[in-house]
Amino acid sequence: MVEIHIAYQGELRCAVTHMPSGTVMVTDAPLDNHGKAESFSPTDLVASALGTCIMTVMGIAARKMHIDITGSNVVVKKTMVVKPERRIGALAVTIAVPHVFDAEIKEKLVAAALSCPVHHSMHPDVAMPIEFRWA
Q: Which residues are CB-contacts of 64 (< 8 A; sequence separation ≥ 6)?
């Protein structure tokens, strides 16, 4: 179990503390929802969680295979919808791996990416296309 403590600071801003490390970050409401967009919004954090989870599980798989995927990156494009209610409509993911690997290693890295717990925790109404770009 991990505790995350959140303190509302007013003006649609929250301070978020990751208790195991003491790391603090701030969230803000987005411009299109009454905020100033001066930091990540809560839904931006969901997009960030998906991208970092994918990259992390790929890194774990790479480590097990004794390969290096340093320099790889993920871009997540978040699209909001407003009907029937305001929510994340899509998280389009593009993964770029700037290394040359054979088909077997690529297959294992793709399988790792698709095993991401955040991906599996999302509601099925959220579209999550994933594209891989290999060197």
A: none
Count other C-beta atoms under 10 Å from residue 125's C-beta: 10
Buried b (16+ CB within 10 A) or exposed e, 60-76: ebbeeeeeebeebebeb
Q: Which of 80, 98, 4, 84 is nearest to 43 (CA)?
A: 80
Question: What pLDDT, in 10s, does the model give residues 33-78?
Answer: 998 999 999 999 999 999 999 999 999 999 999 999 999 999 999 9
Q: Identify the sign of the CA torsion 81, 120, 91, 130.
A: negative
* Residue 129: both structure tokens together: 């296309």
pLDDT in tens, 31-42: 989 989 999 999
- Has this prediction a pTM greater than 0.85? yes
* 73-81 and 4-10 beta bridge pairing: unpaired
